[in-house]
Amino acid sequence: MGLKARLQARIRAAGPIGVDAFMTACLHDPEFGYYATRPRLGEAGDFITAPLVSQMFGELIGLWAVETWVGLGRPAAFRLVEVGPGDGTLFADMLRAARLEPAFLAAADLWLVETSAPLAALQRERLAGAPVRWAAALDEVPGEAPMILVANEVLDCLPVVQFVRRAEGWAERVVGLDADGELAFALAPPLTAPPGDAAPLDAAPLGTLVEVSAAQRAFVAAIARRIARFGGAALLIDYGGEPSGGDTLQALKAHRKVDPLATAGEADLTVHADFRAVLAAARAEGARAALLTQGEFLRRLGVEQRAAALSRARPDRAGTIARQLARLTDTAQMGRLFKAACLFAEGEPAPPAFEFAEKDA
């Protein structure tokens, strides 16, 4: 029995499940979940992330972390944490760039937060020799010290609940079974009151779909609480923006969008990050928050100058480097859809690139 059959049996026995429960099962079921059993990153896999596009991405974030540490007053001990580190490429590139400041590496207590056993194995192989420790959740990483945290494409993997505005009110969109017993989307009975995050959209046209992610907000709130208490900064890079209504759930397999219901557990599932909600959650915990597009963030860090230097050093790769730069920064590619959110403590200087970026998402 695969995951699809297991979900069908579950729904027949207990009724439809929310989109959040469907996502969690597809990604993390111990026996059949995508990340638990078969994550495939890179050109030959199902999807590609910015660290795999170019070394420039990880190198600049490594230097961003160093300068953030300097702005914190060069603490003698701090936690350098990556959540959802993929195959370890980003962290490896960050550490390589950070060698320019040996004192930074000497002060850093290195942690990776990873729930996927296959990905953790790849990370251990790539980072062999580095004094890295692993945790299954952020709360397993010790506190009592400043933290510099990076999370690239983590928010988009956290589950959402979907609601649709009907004439009778807001109704949750669920996963049930059609007349043939196949997985199908349906609507639960209308709510007696609108969901909190959907209430401002009460004037929206009938049929409007909104997504609410308590998981995204809780994840960012936990980071913000630690930063507000112990100091430090967090960099969260993902795709999304202001909520405007609409279904953002997608499944990717071999770099193509596929039906998420037909490929349960066989494809990567993602949704857009709701930056307005998560930055509000961070501020509610006492942290400051700022937001830039990925393109603007990388340009402020000097990605164009870095690309030019790499092209001078390797003229034979100049065309490839130019394409990598465009993929990371152009508005028609990752430059605008992807955002870089930064959390930092009250009373501490804004980290590099965010000095003049603090605003509501």
Tell me what you see in this structure.
The chain is of the alpha/beta class and 361 residues long. It has 2 domains: 3-32 and 161-211, no CATH class; 36-156 and 213-245 and 266-345, Rossmann fold, CATH 3.40.50. It has 14 helices and 16 strands. It has helices at 3-14, 19-28, 34-37, 50-53, 55-71, 89-98, 102-107, 117-126, 214-230, 275-284, 294-300, 303-313, 318-329, 334-337, and strands spanning 17-18, 78-83, 108-113, 132-135, 147-152, 161-166, 169-177, 183-187, 209-212, 232-241, 250-253, 256-258, 268-270, 273-274, 287-293, 338-345. Strands 2, 3, 4, 5, 10, 14, 15 and 16 form an 8-stranded mixed beta sheet that branches. Strands 1, 6, 7, 8 and 9 form a 5-stranded antiparallel beta sheet that branches. A 3-stranded antiparallel beta sheet has the order 12-11-13. β7 and β8 form a beta hairpin. The mean pLDDT is 93.
Characteristic key phrases:
361 residues; 2 domains; eight-stranded mixed β-sheet; five-stranded antiparallel β-sheet; 37% helix; globular
Which percent bin holds the helix content?
A: 25-40%
CATH class descriptor of the largest domain? Alpha Beta
* Total domain units: 2
C-alpha termini separation:
44 Å
Q: Structural class, please?
A: alpha/beta
Strand content: 15-25%
Number of strands: 16
Stretches with pLDDT under 50, minimum 5 residues: none
CATH topology of the largest domain: Rossmann fold
Instruction: State the order of secondary-structure elements, H for helix, E for strand.
Output: HEHHHHEHHEHEEEEEEHEEEEEHEHHHHE
Radius of gyration: 21 Å
Average residue-wise pLDDT? 93
Largest beta-sheet details: 8 strands, mixed
CATH architecture annotation of the largest domain: 3-Layer(aba) Sandwich
Q: Assembly type of the shown chains?
A: single chain
Overall geometry comes to globular
How many DSSP H or I helices?
Answer: 14
